[in-house]
Amino acid sequence: MILSDYRKIYAFKGENMRATKIEWVTNPDGTRGDTWNPIIGCRNNCPYCYARKIATRFTGTKMYPNGFSPTFFPERLRIPYKKKKPCMFFVCSMGEMFGNPYPWLTQVFKVIEETPQHTFVILTKNIIDSEIWFLNQTLACYPNVWFGVSVDGIYTPRIYGGSGKLKPDYYLWLKHAISVLRKVKRSGRIGKAIVSFEPLLAPIPSNALSDLAEFCDWFIIGAQTNPNRQPGKQWVESIVKIARVCNIPVFIKDNLEWPEKIQQLPT
Ligand code: SF4
Q1: Model confidence over 80-117: pLDDT tens digits?
Q2: Please, what are the domains in the chain?
Q3: Average pLDDT score over the chain
Q4: Which Pfam families does the record cross-reference, listed alphabetically (predicted)?
Q5: In a mutational test of the pocket of ligand 1, which residue from 40, 96, 170 has the highest number of ligand atoms less than 8 Å from its CB?
């Protein structure tokens, strides 16, 4: 997640449910979906993370009692039940779902199971924990979960043993991330597999893109904002090109200065 998104979705009051302005979070009827943050915080240390900046700034408030340390808000579990109309929720937009205690995840996924009319989008960099959760910890299937990995091209998540811009580590992580996403998708435990290339900070190796294109259902591409850092033209072109060849919908966010408006959603 990046600055502009957090500015748009950030709210101090209420239960942290409001229509998000994140363009790709779209309800089946075409209206804008919601963010849902039963867990906030994350132990990765991505330098561009604006959620961390906000949470750190407002540490000790009702919204961020523990700053950006992972925190569970059980009172927010009731939010999806209140929406009768099918809705898309971007889950944990202010942190990471995985890498947290399983009793937290159990409660969140119980809500997901009990509200099958909704779609829940979960993006992660904590691939080890997500693999354990989907393939070992739970025996349930979540057809209404669109699960994906966030790929920026540079930063190895701290939880994976990374400490910043260590390129060899990153490629190891990426390879592992692709294998986990593929396994989870093919297990039938989730509805769709997606990749968010946001912020796209480096070219993605063509073999990684080919591997992803074999089984993914959606690619999202975005730029870093504040400071604005646009990805190389060829980096974006290579993703769009393979998506076209393999018939994968692509959503290019408005923060990416791209000449053509490409904002496709999975069917
Ligand atoms: S993984 Fe996501 S939430 Fe965690 S520090 Fe990185 S950008 Fe922020």
Answers
A1: 999 999 999 999 999 999 999 999 999 999 999 999 99
A2: 3-252 (3.20.20)
A3: 90
A4: DUF5131 (PF07505)
A5: 96
